[in-house]
Amino acid sequence: MEEQKAPVTFSPAIRGTASFLSYLLHPLFIPLLITFLCVTALPEYFGAFGKESVRIPYDMLYARVAVTCVLFPLLVVALAKALKIVDDVKLQDRQQRIIPYVATIIFYFWAFYTFKRQGVSPDFFNAFFLGIFIAIVISFVANSFIKISMHTVGWGGVIGFMLCLMWGMGLNVSIPLALTFLLAGLAGTSRLVLNAHSNGEVWLGFGVGILSQVIAYLIVG
User: Fold this and answer.
1) DSSP string for 187-215
2) CA 109 to CA 34: how far, in whole Å?
3) What are the pLDDT digits (tens) for 25-78?
């Protein structure tokens, strides 16, 4: 009988750093980050949102993304924890990810639908939110069989989004893309250091994230 390998353990300092990076690079913050990068680098595509600003440029757009894609999913997890539906906000158990998955699917579809319906946001921006929605749906289905890494799904999505901008629109995003690869590597490594996922779950997450963005861009980009 083949002997199973024990998981590699790291020093408390390394694990502490990995835990910090896991929070810092959490996928919930990615939509807000992409929104900031898009309006900063390509403000000419977001003129309508600039006109809606109250105190700082694009503040209403940031608030809209933050509430829909960050606050609402966090509230669902907090409520599930308060009702003892989940034991841990880290959602390490596959079964306890079901309700947060379903809620997040609804929130991200709503974000995509409202941006698309409003008709003032650029197609590549709409495609990004559709890509997130597709990625979460795939991850939800895969959750029945494997605990896919949502950290790498998220950062894989950023890589896919950057590649779509480069290939589809001819934009030079080589420096942001290189930085994204670095952050994605840190996110994936941190999950492995914490023994939160296997190598396969981490790489599968990257694949799902990238593929979902490509599919979304082909649909609406």
Assistant:
1) HHHHHHHTTSS-HHHHHHHHHHHHHHHHH
2) 17
3) 999 999 999 999 999 988 999 988 988 888 888 999 999 999 999 999 989 888
